[in-house]
Amino acid sequence: MKYSYLGKTGMKVPVLSFGASSLGGVFHSVREAEAIRAVFTAIEHGMNFIDVSPYYGHTKAETVLGKALTELQRESFLLSTKVGRYGAGGVNTWDYSAGRTRESVFESMERLHVDYIDLINVHDIEFADLSQVVDETLPALVELREKGLVGHVGITDLQLENLKWVIDHVPEGTVESVLNFCHYTLNDDKLVDFLDYFEEKGVGVINASPFAMGLLSQRGVPEWHPAPAALVEACRKASDYCLSQGYPIEKLAIQYSVSNPRIGTTLFSSANPDNVLKNIQYIEEPIDWDLVAKVKEIIGDQQRVTWKNT
To answer: Which InterPro entries does this chain map to (predicted)?
Structure first.
């Protein structure tokens, strides 16, 4: 496993990290014992950065992950979770107030069985009043950082423009990292347009969802996926072509997503230990850049099609 530093945080993270959303049954039902083994497999093979959220599975992902973490030495992993986006009974809720933010951090620590969180993120800020994120959410997290309860503070969003807006409106050093998803993939590399800006601000970059939430997979997208039909069809054709070449699109997608040295780490999620190991093995092999070019040609005009988070 190769490692790099996440911005100026001092956190040395693997190029491929473990996203724990699958532990909450976000994509399909999971078996808890198998999900816990997936966490162990990740740690054993150097994926020591773990990202989760109380929103994933409406606290289930944090709860399952917490059971796994009780079996691990605290120094063996770096832990990231989030505030702002929640849910219960299948209903999404959002609350970016300072009071709920502080409360959420302590709730997450209890579920995760830790007394310190390495990185705390404001989750999906496109659903928030960005001024509230600047005036309430982030100051509450900075306060917890100053108290030593969290190590570093970040923000996440699908919309890169929102990430930039918030960074521009807070004191330097408030936001130490950003997490953006689906924008450094085979079908969309918009994140590249913002790397100079993030580097100038000393902000580390976390790339997430190398499979574009199922677009770049043989299984295809879940029903709730927000991509337009034309993009879904283009990605399906690309997947079929890769398969005809004996090169699963999942392999090409994850290799591509970890190929840019300016990106600190890429998150992928699986509750299956075999899939965790398979993806680690994928990134150890050289990428077929000719196939990358062919896939981008197949997807063609559908690249960088705008679609909204749900």
So the answer is: AKR (IPR020471), LGALDH-like (IPR044479), NAD(P)_OxRdtase_dom_sf (IPR036812), NADP_OxRdtase_dom (IPR023210)
Domain assignments of the chain as residue spans, ordered by start? 3-213+254-287
| Average pLDDT of the chain, as a whole number | 95
Tally the C-alpha atoms within 13 A of residue 301's C-alpha that lie toward its C-beta. 1
Helices 289-299 and 229-244, interaxial angle, to 10°?
150
pLDDT tens for 193-247 read: 999 999 999 999 999 999 999 999 999 888 888 889 999 999 999 999 999 999 9
CB 138 within 8 A of CB 153: yes
Based on its alpha-carbon atoms, the radius of gyration of the chain, rounded to whole angstroms, reads 18
Q: Hey, how many other C-beta atoms are within 10 angstroms of the C-beta on 176?
A: 22
CA-wise closest residue to 251 among 216, 227, 219, 294: 216
Residue 62, C-beta contacts closer than 8 angstroms, at least 6 positions apart: 20, 24, 52, 53, 54, 56, 81, 108, 111, 112
Q: Which of 3, 5, 55, 56 is catalytic?
A: 56
Q: Which CATH number fits domain 3-213+254-287: 3.10.450.330, 2.115.10.20, 3.40.50.300, 3.20.20.100?
A: 3.20.20.100
- Rounded CA separation 101/125 (Å): 13
* Cα–Cα dist 270/276, whole Å: 6
Q: Identify the band that residue 27 occupies on the pLDDT scale cut at 50, 70 and 90.
A: low
**H-helix or E-strand spanning residue 118:** strand 117-122
Identify the CA nearest to 51 among candidates 19, 27, 16, 74.
19
Q: What is the pLDDT of residue 145?
A: 98
Active site residue 56: yes
Flag the least confident range among 27-41, 54-68, 91-105, 137-151. Answer: 27-41
